[in-house]
Amino acid sequence: MNRPRRAALGTGTAALTLALGALTLTGPAYAGEPEKNGNGASTEEKGGGDGTGIYAAAKVQYSGAVTKDGGSGNVSSAHVNWTPPPCWYAPYLGAKDFKKKMSKNIKDAKNTPGMTGHAGAAINEMERHYEDDYGWTDTPGYKDYNVDKDGEGMFWAGVENPNEPDYLKRTGCTDLPFWVDNGEPPPPQHEEAITPEMLAALAYQHMELPGTKVTLAPEAVTKVNLPTWAWLDKAVFDEVKATAEINVPGFNLQATTTAKPKSLTLDPGTKDATTIPANGECPIVDGKIGEPYAKGKSKETPPCGVTYRRSSGGDTFPLKASLTWEISWVGTGQAAPVGLPNGTIEAVQDITVEEIQSINR
């Protein structure tokens, strides 16, 4: 029997929520050490396992330059409307494990006091959906939880992104778990099914880039109308890579996000200052940003820097340095790099600006 899937489920949302409550698959369970050059650091998000050898939950494994605690990294997207996926669908359980899990959930829900009317009917429909081949227009039913196909595919379920602050978005992947044969794509109606591009966005979200401490001359204390030279250590300009991967029996998907330094933008912290260049953006030239100050260059104009026009009056000015990184990704089925929005990281240094003292003779 077929009927519209969403209409059939809409009458018992509360019951379905109760029955599927145990399917929440989020939270960082392990974290490796962070690593700045993209070699070796890892962290993963996963659910529990039961020791059967069949994965008991979808998991995303992160490696390279990623945060050690599974939280968001230090990169801010230059595109205000760009966000990582708040939730997605991914492999969850093999058929036998899924039957064990889901049949218990359904039994518990049916025995819950007050589970009658529309809610009770919805639970009964869900039980028929997985046991008696009861389906809807765009969703086929299953006979005995597909146990005769165990090992040939997996049931997929919704996964929350624990770093998504919006609860409604984070919990938006509410479709019932669905079967996907090994080597086959998920049914097209599940638009949030995990893709390499989504993994690239998750790697971006977890990426940890080197800090942006600008070297200054004079350092920390400068003079009014005296050019302050600014430059970055060349070590900052190494490419940084972060990888996100899902690897379960019959399914492997991965994406590697690469960040390359692009330019440095200086904000003096006061309007009474002039940046060099005038727009405050110091580009990479010959693999470096700015030029180290050397003795004898005091009367020269630095390629990257700032000149303060008034003193800080015994206080300091917050000099903000924003390093822009050009970000792209490659992954499963995508060999040529694909661009993502530029990323930025910022650092603030307190600068004391003093008047030049003159001696009258």
Question: Any overview of this molecule?
Answer:
The chain is α+β, with helices and mostly antiparallel strands. The chain is built from six helices and 18 strands. Strands 1, 2, 3, 4, 9, 11, 12, 14, 15, 17 and 18 form an eleven-stranded mixed beta sheet that branches. The N terminus is likely disordered.
Class inferred from helices and paired strands: alpha+beta
- C-alpha-based Rg, rounded: 28 Å
Number of separate strands: 18
**What general form does the structure show?**
elongated
Q: How many helix segments?
A: 6
Largest sheet: 11 strands, mixed
Oligomerization category of the chains in this entry: single chain
Residue windows where pLDDT falls under 50 for at least 5 positions: 1-56
Q: How far is the first residue's CA from the last residue's CA?
A: 104 Å
Helix and strand succession?
HHEEEEEHHEHEHEEEEEEEEEEE
Can you give the mean pLDDT?
A: 82
Helix content: 10-25%
- Approximate strand percentage: 25-35%
Sum this structure up briefly:
With 361 residues, the protein is α+β, with helices and mostly antiparallel strands. It has helices at 5-10, 13-19, 95-110, 117-131, 167-170, 196-206; strands at residues 28-31, 42-45, 60-64, 76-77, 87-93, 153-160, 178-181, 215-217, 221-223, 228-231, 240-248, 251-267, 273-276, 281-285, 288-289, 305-308, 317-331, 334-354. It is 16% helix and 34% strand.
Q: Which key phrases capture this entry?
A:
361 residues; alpha+beta; eleven-stranded mixed β-sheet; four-stranded antiparallel β-sheet; 6 helices; disordered N terminus
